[in-house]
Amino acid sequence: MKTGARYQAILEILVDIFKDKKPADNIINDYIRNRKYIGSKDRKFICEQTWDIIRNRLKLEFDSGSKDARTILLWKIKENLAEVFDNSTYGLSPLSEDEQQLLNQNNDTPYPNYVEAECPEWLFNQISDIEFCKALNTPAEADFRVHGHNRNEVIKRLKEEGINTYPTPFSPYGFRSELRFNVNNSATYQDGWFEVQDEASQIAAILCDTRPEHKIIDYCCGAGGKSLAISSILNNQGKILAHDISSQRLEAIKPRLSRLNVKNIELTDIIATSDTDFDRFIIDAPCSGSGTWRRSPDAKYRITPQILKNLNQTQSELLELAAPKTKIGGRIIYITCSVLSAENEERIANFLQNHTEFSLLDISQLWQQKIGTPYPHSNSYMLRMSPLTTNTDGFFIAILQKNS
Predict the structure, then answer these.
(1) How many CB atoms lie within 10 A of CB 161?
(2) Where exactly does CATH 3.40.50.150 map onto the chain?
(3) From edge to edge, which strands make up the β-sheet containing 174-177?
(4) Which end of the chain is more exposed for a tag (fewer CB within 10 A), N or C?
(5) Amino acid 178: pLDDT
(6) Cα angle: 159, vertex 164, 166; to 5 degrees
(7) For the segment 94-142, what is each residue's pLDDT rounded down to a tens digit?
(8) Which class in CATH covers the domain with range 142-196?
(9) Regarding the domain with residue range 203-402, which homologous superfamily does it belong to in the CATH classification?
(10) Residues carrying CATH 3.30.70.1170, the chain
(11) Which one of 119, 208, 220, 337 is the catalytic residue?
């Protein structure tokens, strides 16, 4: 593809992404999949440039004074216009006079804090930390979790495949790669030796502190990552009830169960009303996903105040559901991949006001027992992980023990 045609492809993708209706990775993948003529070098260029624009969207909007995809793209490439407008058949249409005048202007106005942070203003007002938001806007390394094998053996075998990885600093099951690679091309992956999972999610599974004799439910399990991690920790012993209201999401877990040879997970989209004896009721709560913006920077534009309000209601309802189903001495483990207090500390505080039979477990002590490294947060009873403190996704964990 000529340069102009590459940028025309980027523009078509951005127009769809900027509607803020669908995940950008789905849009990009569908676009490229439907155009077999796009070669590997062109794919790489288109993807890299598109994600760079997404990560700098607010600055480009501010500098160009526009939210229009073409205007933003032109502002991004204005130093290379001669190369881009190469008169190729499938390239960008010629510049208008208005566009030419716009590109000759300079905007020297300092960025507002939310623009500097690359975070929508209403969300930035809830976070109020520029450096934290910048960390959430930085591409993440690729994290993995060994499954049923020794970590050093997995790292060694991957090296023999030409893939260099190294252990994660906290999870004893985790390893990391600075460069992304297609796991489906790895024999080690296909043989079920490891899974893709951020280190923070692995730690959440570890801190569930499960045993084979426990009655365990992973409620709203989604893709089933924590259930699979707990299965590996338990060496395929005991039983884990992996629940989700979406039968489609549960179906998507089945190939993973087969590849990993998992025998101790039972999938269900219902829960018996008579169950009141769970040792571990794990709430993998639906949330804004704000902690995963490193991987999905476009997601921040699809959240609205009303969506957040609805999520808060669902999160509280899930805690209320778990309370009577947890046995005395059992624990509710509340987990989100969010960095917003409204989804985390506020939900726990509201729950505890109405449920004096529960108390917060000291996570710092559990961390010392299970992880063995210095505890990375100032609050011993509600754990936050983030790109700044643990070099992980943003995660929140609170463990509520039911007392007599």
Answers:
(1) 13
(2) 203-402
(3) 166-167, 174-177, 142-146, 194-196
(4) C
(5) 87
(6) 110
(7) 899 999 998 988 888 999 999 999 999 999 999 999 999 999 999 999 9
(8) alpha beta
(9) Vaccinia Virus protein VP39 (3.40.50.150)
(10) 142-196
(11) 337
